[in-house]
Predict the structure.
Amino acid sequence: MDEPLQDESLCARGGWFEDFTTRPSNPPLYQTTAFDLHGVEQLDAVVSGVERGYIYTRDGNPNHTAFAADIAKLEHADAGAVCASGMAAISAILLSHLKSGDHVVAARVLYGRTSQQLEELTKRFGIEVTFADSRSCLAMRDARRENTKLCLVESISNPLLEVVDLQALVNAMGEVPVVVDNTFATPCLFRPMEHGAKLVFHSASKYLNGHGDVMLGVVAGERAAVTRVRRIASLFGLNANPFECWLASRGLRTLPLRVERASSNALQIAGFLERHLAVSRVIYPGLASHPDFDLASHVLPHGCGGMLSFELQTAEAGVRLLLRELADTIPFSPTLADVRTTVSWPAGTSHKFMAPDDRRAWGISDGLLRLSVGIDSVQDVISELDRALNQTLTAK
């Protein structure tokens, strides 16, 4: 009979239970740094793919695999990879597909930090970037060079809600691979792979998780391209952690319901804002006043999402007053796509790094607000907005 273990060993080696055959109703969380191996032979088998297994969580984890696979299926893509954030996801794409001297054609209007990252790549690593109007396939095509390796756009742009005609853009770009940030639309409303994109990425912190408690990014697309992304994510430490993936998988279960409700609410709120005296402009692709309305009706037949922007008659003075008035009901938050409705000010958050003249030239005025419409009562949100907007009419 084996000698009983000492207390120190019992404590250090405890927590395990015998294998069982009943499957848990919810996927388990594999909160572990590494996975134990029986020996060198098993290590070789796992590394070579002969045996299914994991070695080190930076390289892969069952929770990574589950979430990435679900997003790949939703996006109708071959494969997926998870990263620590949306910015980590785009970093992994750029680092895995570009080298010094390469050129990128990017949409003129992008999430501010994406534009900032592209400019950093130009300054530090000699990667050339040309920004062009993604609503003009001719402008994007004419921006190509012999060394153009990627084209980067958003399916619905942040914060101006421009809608890209992706199929036409892919045709115009020819052999240049098109990469699409699909965060605003989600695969519930638009699937870029069906329109010729090579890679799709999301800030999964937003709609995919949907509850404001995860920092996560995800990439989906052609298998060879995703394999390159996954390698760079591991090598540069851009990988996600298991708990974030587990939370995002849980949030994903209600994605279609949340997107449908947010889209319906946003359309009603956009109509209300368009009629309000305090508002000078409303930007929402579901409104007939939006320049991309006809295109949106075609490529977004199931709704235009929960994001909208609007400008106040009283510009920045009105913005400051409105945010104070809404603080207890519709909070000022520098993120989006939570279940609750929130508001943000692009000129002071996501696009703050830009020179004011450049922001205004892009259409991002000091009076522009971005509303992330949630699943809360649309009547309550309209009432709260109405009260706060009425206060801004006298702002100076």
In short: The domain at 255-392 is CATH 3.90.1150.10 (Aspartate Aminotransferase, domain 1). The first strand starts at residue 79 and ends at 83.
